[in-house]
Every structure is written in structure tokens, then in C-alpha cells.
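note to self: dont lose this again. the chain is below, predicted strucutre after it. 72 aa total, dont forget to put it in the shared folder this time
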Amino acid sequence: MKVRIPKHREFLIKFEDGYDKQDEAWQALNKIVKDYSVDGKSVYTETFIEDNEDKVKALQEIYEFTYEIIEK
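---
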């Protein structure tokens, strides 16, 4: 049997070691995912990155993390 697995892209979020607001930042990032899922979408939706990158960038300004988009 053959199965075609679609490529998937993800945000890879990185914080500096010892960053004191990391828990708060993760809660805000997880809220993006939760809000996105209200319409039945998920992180596996093809447009997840495009739909949410501006929100992630806004949080990046507040919480001082770096991110990259990786393809799996």
C-alpha cells in the first residue's frame, strides 16, 4: 500500500536560556492555536503559517523570542 503524506510546515520557537516570561509567552502562543481551531482548523491546515505569522511576529515583539519556519 502507498500513502502520500503531505508536507507540513511548523513554527520553531526559541527562547534564550533563563528567559523569565517563557510560560506567559507559551500561553499566548497556544492561544493563537486555540483561536485558530474555533473554525475547525488546526496546525496541519495548509495555510496555518500564512494565517498566523503576523500574530506570532506581534508576540515576538513582546516576548523576545526567535522563530523559524521548518518543513517536515
